[in-house]
Amino acid sequence: MSDAGLHHSLEVFIGAALTLMVFSFLYRDNPLYKIAEHIFVGVSAAYWMVIGFWTTFWPNVVVKLLPAAQRVTNPDAPLPEQDPAVIVPLILGLLMLCRLWPRLAWISRWPTAFAVGTTVGYSLVRYLRSDFLNQISATIEPGLLATADSGALWSARFDHILIVVGTVCAVAYFTFSRARRGGLAILARIGLVFLMITFGASFGSTVMGRVTLLVGRLRFLLGDWLGLI
Amino acid sequence: MSETSWLDQDAWNLALFLVVIAVAVLGAIAAARGGRRFYLRPLPAVEAIGEIIGRATEMGRPVFYIAGTRDLDDVQTLASLAILDQVGTMTARKQCRLIMPTDRSLVLAAAREVLRDAYAAAGRPDGYSDDLVTYVSDDQFGFAARVDGMIAREKPGACLLLGSFFAESLLIAESGNQAGAVQVAGTAMSHQLPFLVAACDHVLIGEEFFAASAYLTGDPTLCGSLRGQDFLKYLVMALITVGALCGIIVAVTDWAPAAVLFQALLRLLETR
């Protein structure tokens, strides 16, 4: 067997063994699952640390401060311009490490506060645009006028009216500061029905996707590993 | 050379809605701080949080808290940390062991700060330890595998899955179910809600999850904020209803005033 073939066989064997060790959790927690779990956690944590270093820290900090460092990963790439502004996020990142020293741990709250504050501020405009205005206009805009010229498309109009009713009722369900009585109670109840129907459809659709994943894993075990199919 | 401007004049409607939102929310907050008490309809899932922590304490089992699998740049993670503050206060007072695995270093740091403050505010700073919050892995399924194993071994009495979840939601929720834990879940991830509804005892659906911290604290600022947001929901319902009615009238009768109003509404909601 060639080196490549041996390498492939070893890879398949390790993959199959780890798959079976993870599947053993279906019976109960056991040492084999614990081994697979620890390998998975250790490898994935290290993997993401390496990925984080080479895809985030290196290009966004090291290369921007020391453009010549670009040649370490890509000898033929043109050198970018130096960007001293990255010193600010670098300092914020270093401040996070202050939590390693109990007397300086309070300093690490500043970068955390910065991250939370910028997230909230940035998200406000982004969500106002995408989740508020765009959603409202998408609900009232497309269906009704598009079919205005064709009386035969009543089914499309009915679909759109259903979307409008479902949306209004679902929004009514998510009000909190008024007692559920009268019309609001009826709207909220209809909204809940719409939500549950949506969840049921989504559940079925996603389960089919998960079954596909299981079939893929079984094909790997029975085909790639055992050669039965 | 193109000129850049600090003011995007095409986004006037964004500014208008921002002002309306700010006035509604800040006005309601001011009213709440001024002593006005707002009604909040009961949310069984929120009421269950205290009960299941009490149950776990009586059983001598720990409480698991998972703040989702996204970083601090997700508003759901921030909402989850606000709830964690109250959960930490409850576990501190009841002297119940809290276990919180995380998959993001920033969430780890923020959660430790939140719990440290919560335990101090509850008068039990000695009950806090950095070991309450542990980092597992940034990898989605590495995290799920570890949490599943931890739940199987620790046999928690309660699991709180509150945050932004993806495909790992059912893996974790089902492990908690198998371990006999009473579970409260909350997320705004619409694709994961069906799984949480199926596997958990109580679920905070979407907006309910964001409202939970106001319910738990009873803080006038948060309750006022909820009232202001409700006003905006009524505004949304009105805009959609008026827009849809105008659309139907235009489609059926081609009545000019309805067409003008319909176009004006679309212009108001237009974004670039």
Shape of chain B: elongated
Distance between the termini of chain B: 23 Å
Largest interface: A-B, 68 and 69 residues
Strand elements of chain A, count: 0
The residue-averaged pLDDT of chain A reads: 89
Class inferred from helices and paired strands of chain B: alpha/beta
Biggest sheet architecture of chain A: none
Structural class of chain A: mainly alpha
Question: What's the helical proportion of residues of chain B?
Answer: 55-70%
Query: Biggest sheet of chain B, strands in spatial order?
Result: 3-2-1-4-5-6
Written description of the protein model:
By secondary structure, chain A is mostly helical. Chain A has a domain at 141-229. Chain A has helices at 3-23, 31-65, 70-73, 87-96, 109-140, 142-146, 154-173, 182-225. In chain A, α1 packs across α2, α1 (3-23) crosses α8 and α7 (154-173) crosses α8. Chain B is of the alpha/beta class and 272 residues long. Chain B has two domains: 20-37 and 220-267; 44-217, Rossmann fold (3-Layer(aba) Sandwich), CATH 3.40.50. In chain B, 61% of the residues lie in helices and 11% in strands. Chain B has helices at residues 12-33, 44-59, 75-94, 105-121, 140-154, 168-178, 193-199, 207-217, 220-253, 256-269, and strands spanning 63-68, 98-102, 133-135, 158-164, 182-187, 202-205. Chain B has a six-stranded parallel beta sheet, with helices on both faces. In chain B, α4 links the parallel β2 (98-102) and β3 (133-135). In chain B, α2 packs across α3 (75-94) and α9 (220-253) packs antiparallel against α10. The model of chain B has no long low-confidence stretch (mean pLDDT 93). Chains A and B meet through α2, α5, α6, α7 and α8 of A and α1, α4, α5, α7 and α8 of B.
